[in-house]
Amino acid sequence: MQDRVHVLARPPFVYALGLVFTIWLTKVYPDYLRFEGDYFLFIISTLSLIFGLSTASWGWQSLTDRNVDPNFKPVGTFVVRGAYKYSRNPIYLGFTFLYIGILLFYKTFLLFITLPIILIYIRTIVIRKEERYLERVFGDSYIKYKKSVNRWM
Predict the structure, then answer these.
(1) Which residue segment(s) compose the domain that 104 sits in?
(2) Over the range 55-68, which residues count as b (16 or more CB within 10 Å of their CB) and which as e?
(3) Within-domain flag for 110
(4) Contact 26, 108 (CB under 8 A)
(5) Residue 49: in which H helix or E strand, if any?
(6) What's this model's pTM, rounded to 2 decimal places?
């Protein structure tokens, strides 16, 4: 039996790789991959960045307040307080909004291609493995939690 979740690439790395690749490609081909933006787009980008940073930080703090290491380590405590009262994956939710905010700032169409690829990986690989692990470790209490709290928001 596994005592922790094993994934090929951890989510922060996946989001960072997507950002670096997308920004690089946008700089190499700016005439083809960028769109026009105005003050409204800047405000949406800024709000997305603020929401993303706040949500990811709150999720991280909710785990560390209960002495849970968010780095794919074995867990002994089931956290349902703080951000986890409203989302089963507040850190990934925060990373997603950070990603959107940064790429809206760069005004790149690639946001609409790279983000779905990242979210498919996070959902089908990472979250699926995490949820199986938590069901195995915490049993019915985690299953009940899954039914009462949404995955994202």
Answers:
(1) 43-148
(2) bbebbbebbeebeb
(3) yes
(4) yes
(5) helix 39-65
(6) 0.90
